[in-house]
Structures are given as structure tokens and as C-alpha cells.
Amino acid sequence: AAEDLFWLGRYAERAEAAVRLLRVLDDLAEDWTSRPGTPGHVSLRLLLEACTRITTTFPGFAGPDAAALLEDPRPELLSLVVDAGRPGTLAHAVNRTVEAAHAVRDQLSLDTWFVLGSLERVLDEVRQAAVDETDQPLQPALARVLEGLLALAGLGAESMVRDVGWYFMDAGRRVERALQVAALLQHLVAPPGAPEYPTAVQALVLESVLIAGESIITYRRRHQGRPEPAGVAELLLADRHNPRSIAYQLDRLAEDLPHLPPEPARDDAGARERLAAVQARLREAAGTGSLAAPGDVVAALHAELTELAAGLARAHFVPVAPQRSLAGTPRWLP
After folding, report:
1. 176 near 13, Cβ under 8 Å?
2. What's the pLDDT tens digit per position in 231-245?
């Protein structure tokens, strides 16, 4: 049950990150696909290529058919919404969320099933419209999916008892949100080796990052003018008061870990030690001004967060095989 709740939190958060990114991409595709040579068209291509890397839905916009898909991105965007058999898509994350919820249905509010049912219905409608070759816009469907995911998050926050299962679910959500924000920044905010782009292109890309990271209003309230990489990185990486930042997720995860069962003795570092190391790296980057060029910092953070998530799973969900004496082992066994 703990494992299913952990993955319920992760997949729900993964679905939310996917739908936010897809809303941005679909909106830009509507505006700029047919306007080559403009800053908006260049920004759209950069965002589409990054989308494949962020969601790991290769080959997509980064594969051998990328040129054709970039010229007409709608078929690939539709696949990223409805193809449940393709890991990394919105439909895949929603399906896994539903499966995890069914495995722990006795832990969840009855209202949860209204929300999950609505998510499946919306995706089925979009899928059927594609089969019928009906030109249905994606934005209304994506808005309904996001609405359902926000309702699911609200039910988890307001309707579940704070027992050990809830802390596993929240830990999964915090780890996944941190990973998704790190991936967004890694591939779109000053990635290592990226060429210099015109100011208008960079501004539109950074604005898209802020929208996908649900932080555009906060940024505009604090800053005047075009978005800058350092400001975006500071808000989404190091701002401990921004509920969408990596620093905020790490603080909440630090509050969750003491409520989990003790980890078994092991040779490598435990979750608390790994978390402390990630927090220390983030504080050091913020203190030394490294967020002005955050690419290397975010890449390292993403790797450490991935290992932290894997370490949590190893510690709590992988059964330890009992040691067995070799005495009396049948001769036909190796």
C-alpha cells in the first residue's frame, strides 16, 4: 500500500507537469506554426525539441522524423496527450495514477473516483475524436484534465488522514515535482552548450517555462521587463516560499521523511543524507551566484534527485532476500 501511494503521488504529479507543458506547447503551436522566421516560430521549435527530452518520449521531436513533426506538430502533440501505451505521455501518467489509486482504494476519499473517472472520460473523448478524424482543439480537453488533477491534489491535501501512507504519497509528489521542474530548467534555461539566441526568442522560451512551472504571475509581480535566466532559476530553483520551486519540495520532503518507517541498515547513504546533500548543493549554488548560468547546477540536481527517489524505493519497497545456508542445497541448483 505504501508503494502504491508513493507512486500515486508521483504519477499524479507527472500528469500535472505533462498537461501544463502540453497546454503551453499547443497554445504556441496554434500561434506560430505557420509563421516561419519569426521569434515565436524559433521558440516553438526549441520548446518542442525540449518537450521530447523532458518527457523522455523519444524519438518524437528529436528523432529522425523531427523535421516533419516540427513543421506540423499537432499529430505528435495529440500522441503525447492520448497514447497510453507510450511512457511519458499524459495518458500514460493518468492511467498509472488510476491503477495506483485502485490498488489503495480503501485509503482514498470516495470523491476520488468522480475525479479519476472524469480524467479517463476526457482522454477517451479526445482519443475517439482523433479516430473519427474530428478536428477537436486540445486546449479545452487539457483544461478539463488539469482541473481534475488539481481536484485530486486537493482531495489528497484536505481529505486524507495524515498517517504513514499519506506521507509516502506526499513524498512521491514532492520528489516528482522537483524532478519535473529540474528537467524543465535543465533543457530550457541556459542548458550547457546551447548557442546564444536572440533576446526575443529567449524571453518567449523563459516565459513558457514560467507558465509551465505555474510561476509566471509571481515573476511578473517581482520583476519588470523580459524574463532573465537568473531570475527564472532563482524563482523555480531556490525560492523556498514558492510552492513550485525545487527548494520548496525539498523542505516538504524533509518534513515527510521522519514520518516514514526507519530505513534498514545499508552500505550507501540513506534518504535523509541524500536529501541533505541535495539541499546543500542548492544552497551553495544560490550563495555563489551559480544560478546566473544554471545549466550545470540543474543537471547535477536532477541526477541527485533521481538517485534520491531510487534510494527511497530501494529502502522501503524492495524486499530483502533472506540469507540461506548452502548446506543441503540440491545438486541440480547452481
Report:
1. yes
2. 999 999 999 999 999
